Write the structure tokens for this entry.
Amino acid sequence: YEEMEKPDRDYTHAMKAEEEYRALIQDYPDSKLVPRAKQRLREVQEVLAEREFEIGKFYYLRLAYPAAIARLKTLVDRYPLYSGADQALFLLGQSYEAEINAIRKNGRIGEVTKGKLIEDQTKQAAEAYGRIIRRYPAMDRAVDAKERLEALHQPVPRPTRAALEQN
């Protein structure tokens, strides 16, 4: 699996490798190969996560927010150790905010429905921004996340002690 440096390559190798490393770790927890397998698994997941991020960003830049949201949500849930997790969560929050703006401008939905949709999207954006602060407080986007939460009039969570120590 040494040929997987770049996320834009054929990623089926990376996906297969991820499966195999996971299986080895699960099936042989006492094996002396586990530490190396865990390291390789992290490397493979970084490649897969980077690819998901690029696709999510592609959709975001083309204003296809629901598609961006789907990709970025999967990414942050599946690869919490991804080095760009804060960036992915921030883009996720921005995608929800873009959806809020689209809903506000939509003249075809009633005010009650509009209010409910905006409330839901705001909650989702706040969850994405809040997760940056709770999980990745020392990463670049933590300050931006705090600003966005304040702008959305949402509570700013405190980072967990574990997250601060991990960072």
